[in-house]
Amino acid sequence: MSMLDVTSDTVCPVARSMDLVGDKWTILVLRELYMGATRFEEMQIQTTATPQMLTSRLKALEANGLVERRPYSEKPLRYEYHLTNKGWDFYPVIYALRAWGEKWCKNPDEGLAVHFVHRACGHDVGVASVCPHCGDAVERKDLEALISDRFLHERESRRDAFKRK
After folding, report:
1. What SUPFAM superfamilies does its record include (predicted)?
2. How many CB atoms sit inside 10 A of residue 64's CB?
């Protein structure tokens, strides 16, 4: 059965998209993949998902063609997770959520959690999808991510707490 069969009760692309990626845990797993995480443990640490929750989201993302598993160890058998082209095509949605969240879900004094610098001209693009300096439209591949000290500390604290368990 194709994905179209599963969602054939509507032709609405928003509803169909929500069927694939419409929950907090899936969005956070995708965020981690875009940030370069490929291993289960790191995704679990940074999303704070239970192992069962993360497993179910990764299986769904794989079944729906956004993620592929690749073995990195045979004994024991372990996998890394990598975005497919379909998965990378979802990135503008995450980028838009980031921009909206920076504007509406934070105090102004907190600053940006991640700064994106346009590799071509070296300027920070803020939350824009067009570089304010040179006017080029930018995609994720065009940007260097620089995590703020505050966000980096938050991520390291999660990692440290996980290792102490």
Report:
1. Winged helix' DNA-binding domain
2. 17
Last residue of a domain, one of 38, 71, 89: 89
Contacts of 8 (CB under 8 A, 6+ apart): none
Same domain, 148 and 99: yes
Instruction: Give the domain CATH number at 6.
Output: 1.10.10.10
> What is the pTM (predicted TM-score) of this model?
0.89
Percent of the chain with pLDDT over 90: 87
As a whole number of Å, the end-to-end CA separation of the chain is 42
User: Dmax of the chain from CA atoms?
Assistant: 50
Per-residue pLDDT at 114: 94
Residues sharing a CB contact under 8 Å with residue 128, sequence separation 6 or more, in sequence order:
99, 138
